[in-house]
Inverse folding.
């Protein structure tokens, strides 16, 4: 595991953007796994700023988001599709058919999970996947206890996670979500974990200490050969 520590959020965001842009430069047809949450916002800002100067950045790129809330329409203000439109999709030349997010409003959520796995496979698998980190160590919406070989599935969100994400919802935070499984994420060619803020310090310390039990989802990253952790948690 490669560790890079930063003394500020802007420097972490700049480094994350540099890694993302380098991946696209290396392979203009890159398949990226993308996160939501507060942490990646600075990365997206920098990527958008850079790509407005360099036309065609995302023309042949394919993206798969890690997760989406269940039971809300994709244009709901709190949905991850709305987040991605606001922070990335509306500002770069990514083809609409090439950005993928689980459909949390699908009538058959189990079928939607299987379809999402098929889409990832059909795209040739995930190249670089960027992850945020929950305070309890969750990655995407894989809460503690999720098997490390899990595939895309429906989850009941923990009270802690619902509280942490409440600001995007006026009152009623969804109770369920669709998330890539830990096994789906581990199939990426490489993984970049972003963690910023004092509230993530404990989870980063558990990761650095090498915890690999199922009660700590991020610990699964020790099973992968190419993981970079970008941390600004002091
Ligand atoms: C949500 C997302 C995760 C994200 C986490 C941390 O639970 N589903 O993918 O990593 O929030 O978010 P933040 O970056 O806002 O702390």
């Amino acid at each position: 595991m490669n560790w890079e520590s930063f003394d500020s959020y802007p420097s972490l965001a700049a480094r994350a953007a540099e890694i993302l842009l380098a991946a696209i430069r290396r392979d203009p047809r890159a398949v990226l796994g993308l996160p939501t949450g507060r942490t990646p916002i600075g990365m997206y800002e920098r990527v958008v700023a850079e790509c407005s100067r360099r036309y065609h950045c995302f023309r042949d790129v394919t993206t798969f988001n890690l997760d989406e809330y269940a039971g809300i329409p994709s244009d709901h203000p709190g949905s991850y599709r709305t987040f991605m439109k606001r922070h990335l999709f509306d500002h770069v030349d990514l083809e609409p058919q090439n950005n993928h997010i689980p459909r949390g409003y699908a009538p058959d959520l189990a079928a939607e999970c299987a379809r999402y796995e098929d889409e990832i496979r059909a795209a040739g698998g995930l190249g670089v996947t960027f992850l945020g980190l929950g305070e309890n160590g969750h990655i995407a919406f894989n809460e503690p206890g999720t098997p490390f070989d899990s595939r895309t599935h429906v989850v009941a969100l923990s009270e802690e996670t619902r509280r942490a994400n409440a600001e995007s919802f006026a009152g009623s935070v969804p109770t369920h979500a669709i998330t890539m499984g830990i096994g789906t994420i581990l199939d990426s060619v490489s993984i970049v974990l972003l963690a910023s803020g004092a509230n993530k310090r404990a989870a980063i310390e558990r990761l650095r200490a090498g915890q690999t039990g199922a009660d700590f989802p991020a610990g699964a990253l020790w099973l992968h050969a190419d993981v970079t952790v970008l941390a600004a948690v002091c």
In short: The CA atoms of residues 195 and 204 lie 8 Å apart. The pocket of GLP is lined by residues 35-39, 66-67, 132-134, 140-141, 161, 165 (CB under 6 Å). Residues 9-26 form the longest helix (18 residues).
